[in-house]
């Protein structure tokens, strides 16, 4: 049991308010444990906090106020405190902001009153109205999750009386709050799939590591379809057998539906879920049950790392290379790295699974810091797709057309065989540029340094930086010319239009994040496509990730050069990963697959490496370049972003920082910039970036703190530190 403080004893409480350090309070009636979640008075307000340790005193003790009450949840464990402190130090985030991530349980401080919740009941409705059907659709789509009356009526877009009407008929069940309802037990000993020799060997190694109950990280590298998921599900089973909890992180919420079904089939019950698509009611329940050890497995997004696990024994990071693991807003952290940190503190194993690992993980495995397991062959009869380049210089294509004759022939061939084809273009919307043919003006966002992208599906222009939308103007905003605005370049919507013209008989499905109002609509669409509900799939990045489309045998990449043009040193790695990942969608079942890459520079080393499949060779060459440049993972980096409505102000401060670089130089680090940030203006704020670069052994965080501590940051300016930036 954690240390206990008697009533009246002085304790230090860390609140979620932006204060420096902790505040002292007196323990309430009945006392409290270290780590207890409490409500404390702060000025006239009540705020949430955690009992962080014994009080520090040093002030007039008669003035110390009392904790108002202790919340009805398990106290924060000491290892969670350590994790938050270390994560705060690593990312240079104030501790209260870190604590906010760990207290994201909605209604955590609600009084423990019973609420009513609603689920699917037993009876069929006698009379279905459109409104009633909407309610049932919501309940069915969320597969048994519970809603409060407000959540359910809002999600269905109906009045609460519609729900009440269904309750009266017994179609919807009304229950007391499930916040204390444990999850169904998962059974690790149900018979799983029979593993191949290769898979069995990997499972044995992981199970042995898990049996040690200590920290370790394994890079599980396997081509798409090799059974990585099967293997790590057995690692989850091994963890459950030891009575410890497991967390599986996934990069895309859209993937969870298919994945949960698989997990349920393996363990006989559904795990807990943690992501933005889960109802508030369920999140409250999950948070609490995780803390009591009653939720054995959590499947979630990166924020699930901050759940109060009682005894976490395994963290799986699926598609570990995925850039969406980096949180780019608020607290900047990489969930993959934080998973390793958390596991090292609580004595858990980490499995990093990917077909195309990040260079970071690859080099950690090379250096012996991570164990490495390889699954080089696809399961069963499935073979890796054949990869081919289409040399666009040799194809005759009219302007404003992007599907080459060679690709067109290949698609026609698939359609005749009743198989599916995927056309991949990593660009949302209809066209990336809207240009006035009269004056040359390009429509830009009023608040950002970005173009407005035409979305015909939504009938609007949209800024992909800030989300601002505007109607498509009839005349040029600059010269007033009428009817001269033209769409330039392809987006997925325009590609879909072209495909519809070329293949009028085919059923075409477009998968792009902004075509779906909800994650649920997207899930449904994916299930439909997987079942053969489309002949041609047109998609962005969204389809590259892990979906299983058994009928898909052809992948056409419209613009394989897209990621290779920028100055970003990670461009090659990203392109390599994305292309291999997309290509891996083809031929997952018995049918052989082909991936065709349209490229204007098929002799480019990255394109050649993608085609030849020489991954080790590619990684070694890439590692050599980065080592030479002294950038991650062979050097350390931090980005400092300064933003303000006033451009002069951010440049002045940036220049001052660049001048006063002595603390960095003394530590062995160097500063570059200030330069306009990769996105130079967002939401009306100008942004400049300084990059700090240091050799591996340098204590970068300390040097950065000493350095930025020298300057006074004007109130209008926001200074954000980004340790290990994604682009450099
Ligand atoms: P990955 O995660 O590496 O892409 P999966 O685990 O999804 O691979 O496996 C690909 C497909 O092969 C899935 O449909 C999976 O059910 C099947 N599969 C993999 N291993 C086995 C096995 N040992 N027995 C039966 N089916 C398997
Ligand atoms: Zn904008």
From TrEMBL:
Q: Which cofactor does it need?
A: Zn(2+)
Which residues bind Zn(2+) 1 per the record?
Answer: 436, 439, 476, 479
| Helicase ATP-binding domain boundaries | 209-375
GO cellular component labels: primosome complex
EC number, as in UniProt: 5.6.2.4
Which enzyme type, at the first EC level? isomerase
Give the reactions, separated by semicolons, that this protein catalyses: ATP + H2O = ADP + phosphate + H(+); Couples ATP hydrolysis with the unwinding of duplex DNA by translocating in the 3'-5' direction
Residues reported to bind Zn(2+) 2 = 445, 448, 463, 466
InterPro entries listed in its UniProt record = DEAD/DEAH_box_helicase_dom (IPR011545), Helicase_ATP-bd (IPR014001), Helicase_C-like (IPR001650), P-loop_NTPase (IPR027417), PriA (IPR005259), PriA_3primeBD (IPR041222), PriA_3primeBD_sf (IPR042115), PriA_C (IPR041236)
Q: Supply one GO BP term.
A: double-strand break repair
Q: How is the cofactor bound?
A: Binds 2 zinc ions per subunit.
What are the entry keywords?
ATP-binding, DNA replication, DNA-binding, Helicase, Hydrolase, Isomerase, Metal-binding, Nucleotide-binding, Primosome, Zinc
PROSITE patterns from the xrefs?
HELICASE_ATP_BIND_1
Alphabetized GO MF terms: 3'-5' DNA helicase activity; ATP binding; DNA binding; hydrolase activity; zinc ion binding
Function, as annotated, reads: Initiates the restart of stalled replication forks, which reloads the replicative helicase on sites other than the origin of replication. Recognizes and binds to abandoned replication forks and remodels them to uncover a helicase loading site. Promotes assembly of the primosome at these replication forks.
Subunit structure comment from the entry: Component of the replication restart primosome.
The entry's family comment says: Belongs to the helicase family. PriA subfamily.
The name this protein carries in UniProt is: Replication restart protein PriA
Q: Which species does this protein come from?
A: Roseovarius faecimaris
